[in-house]
Structures are given as C-alpha cells and as structure tokens.
Design brief:
With about 190 residues, this protein is mainly β. It has no helices and 14 strands. Strands 3, 4, 5, 7, 9 and 14 form a six-stranded antiparallel β-sheet that branches.
Length: about 190
C-alpha cells in the first residue's frame, strides 16, 4: 500500500485560464483542500476555485449488487494500484457579472491513468486533452500506430497517453457555482 500526500499528486497543480487575461493575479497555492480567488479584471468577475479529491469505494448491498460511493481524501492517504480517484473543481463566481470562456487545465498525475469518458462539465462546455508530446489540446487525441504489415494507421490514443485535461466552461453566471470533474486510476 502506498502512502501519498494528496498535495504531491500532479493533478493538484490546478492551472486556471480566464479568456483575455495573460496572468491571474493573487492566485495562491490552490491545493490545500482550500480555495483560491481568480479575478477577471475585464468583467469585474471574481472566481473562487476549489479542488477536491475522492476515492471510489465499491461495496455490495444486501442483495449482492455493487454500490459505488466516494470517500473524501484529505492530508496523507493510502492508495493502491487500481484505486479510482475523482477530482472535482468547483468555481464560485462571487461577482454579479458572468465570467465567460473559463478554461481549467489539469495535469493527469504521474502514476495515474485518465479514465476515458469520465469527465463531466456544465452544459455548453467542452472537454479537450493533451497527450504525450502534444502541443495543443484536442477533443479526440490520436496516435500513429505501426501495424504488423508495416502500414501506419491513426488510432484513438490509449488512456495511458493522456497527460492533461482542459475543462472549458462557457459561462459562470454571477453569484453562481459550477462544477467539473474527472477520474483517474492509480497504476
């Protein structure tokens, strides 16, 4: 069993990009199971971000059916190979005006594999990814694979190649909270 400080997991380095801003002033370390404030000076919006992590727990109910629950993770926790973790990013707009075109970039932690199709974002949003060596985010990453006959074929990238996820949220209304999440599995 591995003991890992949640603060050391790569997904913790939450990067936030608010469109039309080159830098986000005053964003402290976001991962302490606390929160951070990002300000969009053009729209006078104020976004408070919070990142949380949960571990999937599978149990059987009285009828023998599997029941999935999520256990919040804080501080030093023990994770094992094949454990599934869910990261949730919450963004609360403290201002009166909407914040538009919010992009939340999350690295897939080393030692973990992104769970394909596990990301969820508010309606109207878009999820894109980077894979090993890629310079840009795309919706459906692909790789070139050399077949036994020598031909090269383009195929969907395997989950193990995913290195970053971008959660694009079209708008965060004033005085509202939005949530986005994704899952990874410990190798």
């Amino acid at each position: 069993m591995k003991s890992i400080s949640i603060a050391s997991i790569g997904a913790i380095a939450l990067l936030t990009t608010v469109s039309a801003i080159d830098a986000i002033p005053g964003v402290p370390s976001i991962w302490d199971m606390g929160s951070a404030i990002a300000q969009n000076s053009q729209q006078k919006g104020q976004l408070q971000l919070q990142l949380s992590a949960e571990k999937q727990v599978i149990q059987k109910d009285k009828e023998g059916k599997q029941k999935i629950t999520w256990q919040p993770l804080q501080g030093n926790v023990a994770v094992q190979s094949k454990d599934v973790l869910r990261y949730t990013v919450s963004g609360e707009n403290k201002g009166d005006r909407p914040i538009k075109n919010l992009a939340l970039n999350q690295p897939i932690p080393k030692g973990m594999v992104y769970q394909l199709k596990s990301a969820s974002i508010p309606t109207g949003g878009k999820i894109t990814y980077k894979i090993d060596g890629a310079s840009s985010f795309v919706e459906n990453p692909t790789v070139q694979v050399k077949l036994p006959n020598g031909k090269v074929e383009t195929q969907a990238a395997p989950a193990s190649a995913y290195t970053q996820i971008r959660l694009n949220i079209a708008s965060v209304p004033g005085k509202a909270t939005v949530k986005a999440s994704y899952q990874v599995q410990v190798r």
